[in-house]
């Protein structure tokens, strides 16, 4: 069982920044990691992902504003979010893709509002 704990969410004004963190248990360096989000009434969607070799992929809505990174020594994946917009408001989830299956964090709220 892989446990994932997100932190760093909250309320921010439009144009502001937040950095989400997700700490994982287990053999973190072997996991591909991703950040997803789910807004009210919408399906969960991929925001960004990073492989074991640190190749990254972004949703079109995140390109140029968000950066995903990982720090294997701390078993942590980050999502730096800049130039936030009200439409970025959602619950953000961390996901680990492991040889034993996929695991999700509990989610953390990000609200972009003035």
Provide the helix percentage.
under 10%
Q: What order do the helices and strands follow?
A: EEEEEEEEEEE
**How many helices does DSSP assign?**
0
Query: Whole-Å distance between the termini?
Result: 39 Å
Strand content: over 45%
Please report the total strand number as a whole number: 11
Radius of gyration: 13 Å
Shape call:
globular
Low-confidence stretches: none
- On the 0-100 scale, what is the average pLDDT? 97
Structural class: mainly beta
Q: How is the main sheet built?
A: 7 strands, mixed
Protein architecture, described:
This protein has 114 residues and is mostly beta strands. The protein is 0% helix and 53% strand. It has no helices and 11 strands. The chain has strands at 4-7, 10-12, 18-24, 32-38, 45-50, 56-58, 66-71, 76-81, 90-98, 101-104, 108-112. The strands form 2 sheets. Strands 2, 4, 5, 6, 9, 10 and 11 form a 7-stranded mixed sheet that branches. Strand 9 (90-98) and strand 10 (101-104) form a beta hairpin. It is globular and about 40 Å long. The termini are far apart. The model has no long low-confidence stretch (mean pLDDT 97).
Q: Can you describe this structure in just a few lines?
A:
The protein has 114 residues and is an all-beta fold. It has no helices and eleven strands. The radius of gyration is 13 Å and the shape is globular.
Keywords:
seven-stranded mixed sheet, mainly beta, four-stranded antiparallel sheet, 114 residues
What is the secondary structure topology, with strand pairs?
Blueprint: E1 4-7, E2 10-12, E3 18-24, E4 32-38, E5 45-50, E6 56-58, E7 66-71, E8 76-81, E9 90-98, E10 101-104, E11 108-112
Parallel strand pairs: 2-11
Antiparallel strand pairs: 1-3, 3-8, 4-5, 4-9, 5-6, 7-8, 9-10, 9-11
